[in-house]
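Dear colleague,

Thank you for sharing your sequence with our group. We've completed the structure prediction you requested, and as agreed, I am returning the results in plain text so they can be pasted directly into your records. Please verify that the sequence below matches your submission; if there's any discrepancy, let me know and we will rerun it promptly.
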Amino acid sequence: MRRATRNLLIAIVLVVVALLALGALPSYLGSGDPYYLTVEPIETNGTAADVNNVSDRRYPYLIGAIESPDGRSDGYQAGPYGMKEWFTHTPFDEVDALTQQVPNASTETGVRVRRGGEVYHAEVVRP
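Please find the predicted structure tokens below.
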């Protein structure tokens, strides 16, 4: 094998390993108190985002909060220097996505969602 070919293969392997590390490592990084997506049943005639047909793979924090007995999702710890948010899914992403899909459903602190005939106010909190 030529020296240039070997160096190219080594460079490709290093790039692949680095990309795999960037995909897996951020989920293990976390510092500070966790953030939670909380839902609270509300009564309103206002617009609410319909989340009856959404997947828990697309909205794991929201569906986890709705299905939990205390209305709170699993915790999310922010990474150092904000780098973790570039590579991982956050509860902030879910609230922002719903706010963009149904702008009239947004509130000052979160978004109103409708699932199974119930209307909830979903927001990210840090207790």
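Summary note from our side: Residues 3-24 form the longest helix (22 residues).

Kind regards,
the structure core
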